[in-house]
Amino acid sequence: MREVTVFVGGSTGTDPYSPKTWSGTSPRLLKAMDAEGLLDKAVGIRVPKIPNTLLLAKNFTRDRGVWRKHFYFDPAYRRALTRAAASIPVTSPVLMQIGHMFSLPDAFPGRPCVSYHDGNLAELLASGYGMQGVSRRRIDQALAYEKQTASRMTAIFTFSEYLRQSFIQNYGVPAEKVFHVGGAVNLDVIPDAVPGKNYRSSQILFIGTEFARKGGPQLLQAFRIVRQSIPSAELHIVGPTQVSDLPSGAFLHGHLSKSDPEQSAKLDSLFRDASLFVLPSLYEPYGIAPLEAMLYQLPAVVTDAWALREFVTPGVTGATVAKGSVEDLATKLIQLLAKPDHLATMGRQAREMVLTQYTWPAVARRMAPILRSLAVAK
Fold it and tell me: What is the pTM of this model?
């Protein structure tokens, strides 16, 4: 018997197999779990239209970002999602939810319940980023909800070891209940290796829709310094549709969808032409884009924090920079671009690391013995 029913909903999306759900992670995770013989079924949950509209109205504020957080953090919204989950008929012995937005232990008392996370609110708050304008009361409600839900889980899966430690230290979950199973790249086809890849083009690639959160403004400042030392350097930006005051040598490509053949081909070309990938985030729960770049043999320059430093080892697979430091970022970019042979070595090592550790089949294999032990225990 297949062991697990997976629930998605709330901020992660309501269609488990949509390429937009959980930034494309959900359908790929489910496919890997199915191939591993774990998945019974996957279901999406949502609050019915009228109650959802009332909750939106209750939390209205003119700032859309604040409105969204007040709505998602509202305990009434969390309870409504949980009731929606409870209405789903399930026969599998283990239940798994994506994220914190609802509580399977409340929906199915006495059943083994697991949750899977790339980040949590405690780490977002510690970063000092992204909560401007959100009321302290609503933040405290959301934090209390996450702690309570985490404490009631039979097991918790995390993308990273830093997040595993956060659940233990910040939420008080016993260490033996929290498992670092990892995360993976969201590519359906693994790109072929390029034995003779050219690293002398001095092309830098950045991918990130949330330009400010991912350190875009700091990158633009650093790139101006890079151009003073390497006039031929180029910066290619993918994700945002508008960026003001682009420096000379910087090119904006907008959003490129992997599901659109033409846009996917353009993205593939940018990966293949680049010498280096950069993501100097001010907060990053995990960081799938650098891992995908590594498959294209690109060393990555990332912030020295969160899960990023678990897969970017300085001098081995890339470099790390101090959070928010324009000077450090510019210095590292100049140093790396000046050593194309070293970039080639790091690029090969980065690709091999991703292929062995950061694929969804590998994640499903790490989940399997834990989920099956819970099914037998039930």
Answer: 0.94
pLDDT, tens digit, 9 for 90 and up, residues 350-371: 999 999 999 999 999 999 999 9
Residues 152 and 75 in one domain: yes
Structural domain containing residue 246: 203-357
- 63: in domain: yes
**In whole angstroms, what is the distance from residue 3 CA to residue 95 CA?**
8
The burial of 152, by beta-carbon neighbours within 10 Å (0-12 exposed, 13-18 middle, 19 or more buried), is given as middle
Nearest residue to 270 via CA among 288, 287, 256, 284? 256
pLDDT digits over 122-176, tens only?
Answer: 999 999 888 999 999 999 999 999 999 999 999 999 999 999 999 999 999 999 9
Question: Which region holds residue 134: left if phi is over 0, alpha if psi is between -120 and 50, else beta?
Answer: beta
Q: Are residues 71 and 215 in the same domain?
A: no
SS3 of residue 280 by DSSP: coil
How far apart (Å, rounded) are the C-alpha atoms in residues 315 and 320? 9
